[in-house]
């Protein structure tokens, strides 16, 4: 595959914070509609790589490509979002005075008119968004995420498993080509994690979207991903299919506790 066939890729990304090398020559490749896992211990550089890919951080050196076009210094997060790179955050930040449905409606509007973000937010907090304007894509997505029954609930005090699905929904409603998910299962119990895994599997198929999954839950990643990258102290120590990763002696030594 050439870079042009990839929805997202990095070449030799190095990121230093002062004297700390958070990422050292990291190259990853994300094919369309694939699920790519990124695992590694705390502090390995996973979130930093996400920030570099999504445009929140400029790397010290190396390149980021979206659909084969170099974006490293050309675009920030907002622009990359309009190019189809969506992300979720480790700690979902939902608006306590909006319903689940309103979160999706708002996210959809923001994608199509980024500059109106704040206008929209003001409108929402002032008047409330009209939920009478039914939107088929929003309804379908609520259904995909098993959120239909909770759609009119306010986002305040939602169980974390539900909040995480809203986060995923906010990313998917923008019709992205790739979603970067930072620790989507953290804090979830076993059954919430299972539900989330199913939502992600379905999302990849129904929305033909690529997913990049940062996780400390290695079993979840190995179970979901087509390919897995393993980071340790900012360096890639392994890359392969889940089976290859399970067998990899370096990974077992460094990470799987052998
Ligand atoms: P992970 O997500 O794999 O746990 P991070 O990417 O958050 O790791 O962090 C990688 C390393 O970079 C850590 O040592 C962390 O302390 C450091 N780091 C991350 N962000 C910053 C920052 N903004 N300033 C300084 N150091 C940072
Ligand atoms: Mg992190």
Automatic annotation (TrEMBL):
**Is Transport included in the keywords of this UniProt record?**
yes
A single Pfam family it belongs to is BCA_ABC_TP_C
**Record GO terms (molecular function):** ATP binding; ATP hydrolysis activity
Tell me the ranges covered by the ABC transporter domain, including all copies: 8-258
Query: Which keywords does this Swiss-Prot/TrEMBL entry list?
Result: ATP-binding, Nucleotide-binding, Transport
UniProt-listed Gene3D superfamilies: P-loop containing nucleotide triphosphate hydrolases
**Residues in coiled coil:** none
UniProt cross-references to InterPro entries, sorted A to Z: AAA+_ATPase, ABC_AA/LPS_Transport, ABC_transporter-like_ATP-bd, BCA_ABC_TP_C, P-loop_NTPase
Gene Ontology CC, one term? plasma membrane
Name by which UniProt lists this protein: ABC transporter ATP-binding protein
Its source organism is: Gordonia alkanivorans CGMCC 6845
């Amino acid at each position: 595959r050439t870079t042009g066939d990839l929805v997202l890729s990095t070449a030799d990304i190095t990121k230093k914070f002062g004297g700390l090398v958070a990422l050292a020559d990291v190259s990853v490749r994300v094919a369309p509609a694939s699920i790519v896992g990124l695992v590694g211990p705390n502090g390995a550089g996973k979130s930093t790589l996400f920030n570099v890919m999504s445009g929140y951080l400029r790397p010290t050196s190396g390149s980021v490509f979206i659909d084969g076009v170099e974006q490293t210094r050309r675009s920030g997060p907002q622009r990359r979002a309009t190019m189809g790179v969506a992300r979720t955050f480790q700690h979902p930040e939902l608006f306590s005075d909006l319903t689940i449905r309103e979160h999706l409606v708002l996210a959809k509007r923001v994608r199509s008119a980024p500059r109106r973000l704040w206008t929209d937010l003001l409108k929402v907090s002032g008047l409330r968004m009209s939920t009478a304007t039914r939107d088929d894509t929003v309804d379908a997505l609520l259904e995909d995420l098993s959120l239909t029954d909770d759609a009119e609930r306010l986002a305040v005090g939602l169980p974390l498993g539900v909040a995480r699905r809203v986060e995923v929904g906010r990313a998917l409603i923008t019709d992205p080509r790739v979603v970067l998910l930072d620790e989507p299962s953290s804090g979830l119990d076993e059954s919430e994690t299972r539900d989330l895994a199913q939502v992600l599997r379905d999302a990849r198929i129904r929305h033909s979207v690529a997913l990049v999954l940062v996780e400390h839950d290695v079993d979840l990643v190995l179970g979901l991903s087509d390919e897995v990258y393993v980071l340790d102290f900012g360096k890639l120590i392994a890359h392969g299919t889940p089976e290859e990763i399970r067998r990899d002696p370096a990974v077992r030594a460094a990470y799987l506790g052998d």
